[in-house]
């Protein structure tokens, strides 16, 4: 059967969370806000604007719109400097095996990411050509757990929501997939992603037989 497999980007295809962290950390330091790796977990799958609000909240800092916009801009400039050097070596293990398998079976491959930098990242990783549709932070107004990004993905793939399978590393993303009536597959820690229909530590743990079951059922 024809299904659409919707991939989140950060944490599913590539590990850009470390670069987001470094860029946010620089800003937090400059504002005298303590920002740890643990705090960074709160930002996974969360939009850029919302991430800044969370960080300012950690330090009880209030700021004008003008300051916030300047900081958002600077964070992105710093983040872009990190991803500038990215290449296909940063694709997470077995992602390409899964993409190839799905392509071989004639399945649709879609990106559903909150990032406004998704396209350049897919280009640098040299996998943009796998995607039949790309929906990212530039296309949606409502952030996950709102299902907008995945609903738009299904629409662009011209398939009903029930024929979509979502791979996500954030709980907000799993909730968004569930709200969209799609099959939700967590990539990461099953105790965190406890609302997912299925969960795998990473793609190396996901067999071709499992993928075939998703295609056929
Ligand atoms: P940008 P995903 C999300 O990507 C990240 O997980 C999140 O940490 C980030 O703040 C967000 O993209 C926005 O990214 O600043 O590049 O627009 O996991 O939905 O692929
Ligand atoms: Mg993610």
From TrEMBL:
Co-factor: note: Binds 2 magnesium ions per subunit.
UniProt superkingdom: Bacteria
Residues engaged in binding Mg(2+): 8, 10, 168-169
Annotated keywords: Carbohydrate metabolism, Isomerase, Magnesium, Metal-binding, Phosphoprotein
Name of the top EC class for this enzyme: isomerase
Reactions this protein catalyses: beta-D-glucose 1-phosphate = beta-D-glucose 6-phosphate
Any one Gene Ontology BP term: carbohydrate metabolic process
EC number: 5.4.2.6
Cofactor entry: Mg(2+)
Catalytic site: 8 (nucleophile), 10 (proton donor/acceptor)
Site feature: Important for catalytic activity and assists the phosphoryl transfer reaction to Asp8 by balancing charge and orienting the reacting groups: 113, 144
Binding, substrate: 8-10, 24, 43-48, 51, 75, 113-117, 144
GO molecular function: beta-phosphoglucomutase activity; magnesium ion binding
Keyword match Isomerase: yes
Family annotation (InterPro entries): B-phosphoglucomutase_hydrolase (IPR010976), Beta-PGM (IPR010972), Beta-PGM-like (IPR051600), HAD-like_sf (IPR036412), HAD-SF_hydro_IA (IPR006439), HAD_sf (IPR023214), PGP-like_dom2 (IPR023198)
Cited PANTHER family: 6-PHOSPHOGLUCONATE PHOSPHATASE, HEXITOL PHOSPHATASE B
Annotated family: Belongs to the HAD-like hydrolase superfamily. CbbY/CbbZ/Gph/YieH family.
NCBIfam families: bPGM, HAD-SF-IA-v3, PGMB-YQAB-SF
Protein name per the record: Beta-phosphoglucomutase
């Amino acid at each position: 059967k024809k299904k659409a497999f919707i991939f989140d980007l950060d944490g599913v295809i590539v590990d850009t969370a470390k670069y987001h962290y470094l860029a946010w950390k620089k800003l937090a330091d400059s504002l005298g806000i303590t920002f740890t790796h643990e705090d960074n977990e709160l930002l996974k799958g969360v939009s850029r604007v919302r991430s800044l609000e969370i960080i300012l909240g950690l330090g009880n800092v209030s700021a004008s719109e003008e300051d916030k916009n300047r900081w958002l801009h600077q964070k992105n400039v710093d983040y872009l400097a990190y991803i500038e050097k990215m290449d296909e070596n940063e694709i997470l293990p077995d992602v390409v095996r899964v993409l190839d398998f799905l392509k071989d079976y004639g399945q649709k491959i879609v990106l559903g990411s909150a990032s406004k930098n998704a396209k350049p990242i897919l280009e640098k990783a040299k996998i943009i050509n796998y995607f039949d549709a790309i929906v990212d932070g530039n296309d949606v107004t409502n952030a996950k757990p709102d299902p907008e990004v995945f609903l738009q993905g299904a629409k662009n793939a011209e398939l009903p929501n029930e024929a979509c399978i979502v791979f996500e590393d954030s709980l907000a993303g799993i909730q968004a997939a569930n709200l969209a009536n799609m099959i939700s597959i967590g990539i990461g820690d099953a105790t965190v992603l406890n609302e997912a229909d299925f969960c795998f530590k990473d793609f190396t743990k996901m067999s071709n037989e499992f993928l075939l079951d998703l295609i056929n059922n």
